Amino acid sequence: MPIAEALRATLLELTAIPSPIGEEEAICNVVEARLVASLGREAVARFQHSLVVRPLVKAGVPRIGLVGHLDTVRTEHDGPARIEGDKLCGAGAADMKAGLAVMIELVERLDLEALPADLTLIFYEREEGPFAENLLGPILAAPEFAHLHDLDLAVCLEPSSNELQLGCVGSVHTTLRFHGRTAHSARPWQGENAILKATRTLSLLAAREPHDVVLDGHHFREVVSPTMATGGRQKNVVPDVFEVNVNYRFAPGRTPEDAVADIEGMVGDDAEVIPTDLSPAGRPHANHPLVTHLAGCGVHGVKTKQAWTDVARFDAMDVPGVNFGPGTQTQAHQKNEWTELPLVYEAYEILLRFLTTLPATTD
């Protein structure tokens, strides 16, 4: 089957399987059965509803990981998965089942004996949720997958419209809990309004300018944003509790704990600061030879990743990671999500060129 036709069929099959976060079993079963049939049982290891695929252990060649998550966000769609012209429509078409289709077709079609790489594929669950619930973390910590710490490069096939996107900003979510005292709203002086206690902090957030950090020639922009607010008991009661979620996106070189300390310093005694989701940043590795090799294989430019991805997990264990994927970036998490099929065909060719022209290593 021609590769374009095969990629369309695989992506359509994957997109037709619902896999919202926490419901990845069905798609994992399908991918597992297919790869066991094509590569053999020994090549495919299952970890809950995730897979680690290493078809051939080789020495003296770069160790490359292709990484993709099986889950999608819960979005609305007006019809079933389908192809409309040069677009494939369906949940996860862009984020990131287009990348999964490329991974599957590559590993099934490559001459693995002749390939100048030791190739590992990771298909994992629960990426679209809190950092602590993402299954890539336990996979990387599992003794049976210790070889993942020896990867020379991890390519996360997040939707990037075939741009090579380097590094990622870290992300911290904190709940700011402002305390007051209830009173009847006709006599507010008898209480303390928790919402009004937040005005100083909210004014500081409004006035805070983005901060640019440059690493390896790449700009990361640090920003702090209030994103959700809850509080109040009823319309005629002065509220005694008001909570604001604050999301801090910070550059590589700082830790989540640094970001929390920065928020605590800004808030002072006005509120409790309760960290709820701490995700580290990832360095760009712009000058790593495997990164520059991939950059020369036909990607649509090289940019900074102004978002969080799992390249940070690899960076934390000193494995360079990059973001490169065929999904149409602007369609991620959208209602009636779609991806452009020509990008999928092109990503396959770029990664094929990258993997088949890798330089040898000395170990």
| Count of spatially separate domains | 2
Widest beta sheet: strand line-up:
1-2-6-3-7-17-8-16
- CATH first level of the largest domain: Alpha Beta
Instruction: Work out the helicity level.
Output: 25-40%
| CATH homology-level superfamily of the largest domain | Zn peptidases
Biggest sheet statistics: 8 strands, mixed
Order of helices and strands: HHEEEEEHEHEEEEHHEEEEHEHEHEEH
Strand content: 25-35%
CATH architecture of the largest domain: 3-Layer(aba) Sandwich
The shape, in one word, is elongated
Number of strands: 18
CA-atom Rg in angstroms: 23 Å
Secondary-structure-derived class: alpha+beta
What is the mean pLDDT?
Answer: 96
Distance between the termini: 37 Å
Residue stretches low in confidence (pLDDT < 50, at least 5 long) are none
**Fold-level CATH name of the largest domain:** Aminopeptidase
Count of helical stretches: 10
